[in-house]
Structure formats: structure tokens, C-alpha cells
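Exam revision sheet. Question 4 asks you to relate a sequence to its structure. Input first:
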Amino acid sequence: MPVTVLDPTTALVAIDLQTRILALPCAPYSTADVVARTAELAAAFRARGLPVVLVRVSGDPAAPGRTEAPRPSGRPLDGEDRLTDELTGHPEDIIVTKRNWGAFHGTDLDLQLRRRGVTQIVLTGIATSYGVESTARAAHEHGYHVTLAADAMTDLDADSHRHAFDKIFPRLGETGTTDEIIKLLP
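Answer key, C-alpha cells:
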């Protein structure tokens, strides 16, 4: 369902827009486009006094347990979890560091949002089918209204991105473009 309304207490939550992730090849949008659109949304949220949450992953985000997919090897390099300069430098922003795909499990994100009376989140970031989708699922389960900024997220695989938008996100919330979301901001 296309985005219809934004609550007066909506927060922007940007997932993993950091050095290590931004260096990956992504589709259907470039990482530069995702950062630019997220920065546009962040500026609009800040101008209205609405919370902006910048989520970064630090360390190995693989949860324990056996999987068929190989796990990344080696230790992360210093600075790989540094958020992109286009979004930083705003002391009022909330920084959340996660160690899993989703931004809720094992972090204080829910507490930070509830303290501010947030009832809805707008999600952006990388990767659509990993960190963004995991966070959207948890936000839905926590009772937040979820809006997904369709042109402000991308994936490591264009088919996975499309699958999330066609099959998963309609069950979790509403989608809209950056422009549509900005027009609806309270």
C-alpha cells in the first residue's frame, strides 16, 4: 500500500550507511543515491524537530548458529563502522550500534523511540533484504507503524530488493518515495 499518512511522532531510522557497507556493489540503486536520499529525508525530519536515528553495525553481524552460507572471515578493520559524513554532525541524532542484522535486538532502539513518543518509523538503508527488512519486521512486531522509503534503500541483489518490496513489505507497512514521504511529514 502506498504511504498514506505519517504520525506526528515519526522517526527516521537509517540502517548501515557506513564505510564498509557503502563500498559494496548494490542494486537497484547506487549507495550514493541511497545516501543522498537519506540525507534529504534526515534534513526534512530535523527541520521539523523529528528524531533521526543512525544505525550502524559493528563487529561480525552473524548471529550464532549453524547456517549453510559461509560466514565472513577475519576481523573488521578500524573505521569500517564509521557512518557516512553526509549524515553525521548533528548532536540531536540518535546513534545505535547493533551487532545483528536488525536494529532492535540487543540495542536500546525501542527505548530511545518510546522515550520520544515515537509511534511510526520511516526506514532507509542497506541492505534491503538484511538489515532493513529485519528492522522492519521487528518494528512491526513492536507495534510501530512502518514506512519504507522505496528509493532510499538498496540491496546486494536487485532480485532480493524486489522480493522484499513485492512480498514482505506490504505485510509490514507502507512504502513511498523520498518525495512522497517528505510531503506527508507533519
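Marking note for examiners. The first helix runs from residue 19 to 22.
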